[in-house]
Design goal:
The structure holds two protein chains of two kinds.
Chain A (H helix, E strand, L loop, with lengths): L1 H47 L3 E4 L5 E4 L4 E8 L5 E10 L2 E3 L3 E6 L10 E7 L10 E10 L8 E11 L1
Parallel strand pairs in A: 2-9
Antiparallel strand pairs in A: 1-3, 2-3, 3-7, 4-5, 4-8, 6-7, 8-9
Chain B lengths: L1 H40 L6 E20 L7 E6 L2 E10 L5 E12 L4 E4 L10 E16 L5 E2 L3 E5 L8 E2 H4 L8 E2 L4 E7 L8 E6 L2 E6 L2
Antiparallel strand pairs in B: 1-6, 2-3, 2-5, 3-4, 6-11, 7-10, 8-9, 8-12, 12-13
The chains are: A alpha+beta, B alpha+beta.
């Protein structure tokens, strides 16, 4: 009888230890998951608030054949500030990496929803003429908001006019 | 023995409750984010149109008072020159000199017309006025969607916007009421002097990611 009581006590103690350990593991796991979810939620909110669109007449995108430049405008259609320094432009699939100039309209302020960004891209290899259609793709990131950056892109066909 | 079992059960039960609370919080956060995304995706898109747009390249943009003259009473102005359509009024100061001029119709001229005082009922002398002509755009814009658009988020482009910097709709259109919004169903009248260096063929309006364009008549 005494043996039975001792073994029961051992079983109980073991069960308590195991259940305690499992509880600790579960709490840690759920804590980690909750933290990750909170981070994902914050990142998702920034991503959803990041939006950019082409602005202006897509039938009359300025082409300067002398300087081989194309000039167009972008509008911040989201609710976060956009970072013009992160701008990536693709013209007919060709990435314009080092030949992008941009300026805000109006000049002062940040690129918020009340500002346009005038973008000029250049390539000496272009042979575009007025009336040509090109595929324009723009990718831009937001300023860091709550520790995260969102990004958005827009693509469209436009006609050059020069 | 019984007390040990009770304590053990309490520990395990409390732990599980804590886990449950964390799980609920996690799911709640996830659900909230998902609902926000769904809500954003369901936002209606703006919709608007340019009903008509006319460019008058020789509109009288301003009338300058070069000499106030004297002996006048408040009256109206007439224009003579290659064109038609101008009308305006003026007010005088205590000496009867022309103090201010208001353009009520800009007309359309190929060169700056000569602006004079309508002589009927006037006995003043020596007033000298001059005019400046340039581009003036009239148009009607209608918000055909269900979204109220802040005017400051609308931009007007002429021929792509490079020869003339895009103009904010809030500055090109001066509402009769002190409103900063463009409401669904509202038609606003564009009355915009744009004294740019060249003529234009097309006007485009961009707001909220939507662009509409129209040929300038």
């Amino acid at each position: 009888m005494a043996d039975g009581g001792a073994s029961s006590f051992i079983f109980l103690t073991t069960a308590l230890l195991v259940s305690g350990l499992v509880s600790v593991v579960l709490i840690n796991q759920w804590g980690g998951m909750a933290q990750i979810t909170a981070q994902e939620t914050a990142a998702l909110e920034v991503q959803e608030a990041t939006s950019v669109d082409f602005a202006g007449d897509p039938m009359m995108v300025d082409l300067n054949t002398t300087r081989n430049e194309i000039t167009f405008f972008l509008q911040n259609t989201g609710t976060t500030l956009l970072d013009s320094s992160t701008l990536v432009v693709l013209v007919d699939g060709q990435t314009m990496s080092s030949s992008i100039n941009s300026s805000l309209v109006p000049v002062t302020g940040d690129w918020d929803e009340d500002h346009l960004l005038e973008v000029t891209v250049h390539s000496s290899s272009w042979t575009y003429q007025s009336g040509d259609d090109i595929a324009l793709t723009v990718i831009v990131s937001s300023e860091v908001t709550n520790g995260y950056r969102g990004s958005d892109s827009t693509s469209l066909e436009v006609r050059l006019h020069g | 023995m019984g007390a040990s079992v009770g304590v053990g059960a309490l520990v395990v039960g409390t732990s599980l409750l804590l886990v449950f609370a964390l799980a609920v919080q996690t799911l709640d956060n996830r659900l909230e984010a998902s609902l926000e995304v769904i809500d954003d995706a369901g936002d209606p898109l703006p919709s608007f149109q340019i009903d008509d747009a006319t460019l008058w390249e020789g509109a009288v943009l301003s009338v300058s008072i070069d000499n106030n003259g004297s002996g006048y009473v408040n009256g109206s102005l007439v224009a003579t020159g290659a064109g038609s359509g101008f009308s305006g009024t003026f007010t005088v100061d205590t000496a009867g000199g022309i103090e201010s001029v208001t353009i009520t119709s800009r007309g359309n001229y190929s060169s700056p017309p000569t602006i004079t005082v309508d002589p009927s009922g006037q006995s003043g002398i020596n007033a000298l006025l001059s005019s400046d002509i340039g581009n003036h755009i009239y148009g009607n814009l209608t918000n055909t969607g269900t979204v109220t658009l802040p005017l400051r988020q609308g931009w007007i482009f002429l021929d792509g916007g490079t020869s003339q910097t895009p103009t904010n709709l809030g500055t090109a259109y001066i509402p009769a009421i002190n409103s900063t919004n463009w409401y669904p169903g509202e038609t606003i009248f564009l009355d915009w002097s744009e004294d740019g260096p060249s003529s234009y063929d097309r006007i485009a309006l961009t707001a909220g990611g939507l662009t509409v364009a129209h040929i300038l008549a």
